[in-house]
Amino acid sequence: MFKQILIIVIIFFSLISCLENFEKLPEKYRSDENLLKQIKPNSKIEYWQIDYVTGFSPDKIFSNGNLNLIKEIQFPKNHNLGGFFTECQPLHCNYRILYIENNKWNFVQDKDELKKFIGKIDNEYEAFLIARINNYNIDSKSNGNGFEKTDYGYKLKVMVYNSCPETKQSFIVTVDKKGKLNKLTDLGYYLQSGDCIIY
Questions:
Q1: Of the candidates 31, 63, 28, the residue with the CA atom closest to the CA atom of residue 48
Q2: Cα gap 138→189, rounded to integer Å
Q3: Strand 84-87 to 57-65 pairing
Q4: Which of 20, 66, 38, 53 is nearest to 124 (CA)?
């Protein structure tokens, strides 16, 4: 009896997965930089920019809004260069967002602040950013790259990457319109090698 129920459950989930219609995120949007550029901040934000910080050197890589405000509103002298999505081992690099709201400069320098800045989920790029905040990655292969718009927000196919031993594990997660992520299904490993990738 238990085996029959198990077989029915497996067939049911197989049929559901066949009905899912995931669209692949194009290659040019898979990088953190290009995902960040697709954020649609709330209407009260008059100007915002993305900086890529390497060591002690911030470079503005994107800006949007009223450029005149940069000259009018004094930039704070004491600010740190911390940010999110830290990389570049053994060196240090990260992203940060600066924005003007209510005639004041504000900084987005960690994942919680980034989630707050994104706010309501307006598109698939913001949904993938929520997945990135929760330590999921986007792959070139469809096992770890897909999205489907739903009534509640988005269903995403993402992956978790480990470098030693190198593995890629596929997951289906949901991101609702308020930015809450739920892990839905563990689809298992689609890459398992004995190699260690050292950065």
A1: 63
A2: 14
A3: unpaired
A4: 38
**Token match 């009534």: residue?**
151
Instruction: With both helix axes pointing from N to C terminus, report the angle between 111-118 and 124-133 in degrees, rounded to the nearest 10.
Output: 160
Question: Can you give the pTM of this predicted structure?
Answer: 0.86
Residue type, 125: Y
Distance CA 44, CA 33 (A): 23
CA-nearest of 25, 20, 17 to 145 is 25
Single-letter amino acid code for the residue at 43: S
Write out pLDDT tens, residues 93-142: 999 999 999 999 999 999 999 999 999 999 999 999 999 999 999 999 99
Tokens of 161: 């990457």
